[in-house]
Amino acid sequence: MKIQFEKVGAAPKPFECTLEGLTLEGTLKKSAHHRVALLSTLEGEISLVCDRCGKHYTKMLKSPLALTLSDEMCKDKEDLDIIEFLDGVIDITYILESEMNLQKSMYHYCPECDESEEILEIEF
Ligand SMILES: [Zn+2]
Fold it and tell me: Which of 13, 68, 86, 97 places its Cα 20 to 30 Å from the Cα of 6?
């Protein structure tokens, strides 16, 4: 799903994008010159592989996702939440894919392993 950067105005523009059981739903709104604010919720099922026993399992997710998007190179690298779309096209699928990969790259146990060994869950 792609949205032209210049089509996003001051009024929140709703979007919804689904990929492999995960849905990213929210709004895009112009926040400043060359800046668009993305406010959304990431919700659905994600398939993960247990880091302990290697078993595939699914996990329900629901977490807020707020990002700043820019269509120019950001000199201010301190803001790590800025995603650059230098061709002027906001690729929602790419954002959703990145979030999915981020979730998958985190350390996680399947429910059975989780029960046998207490780990700290990060709640959103
Ligand atoms: Zn396991």
Answer: 97
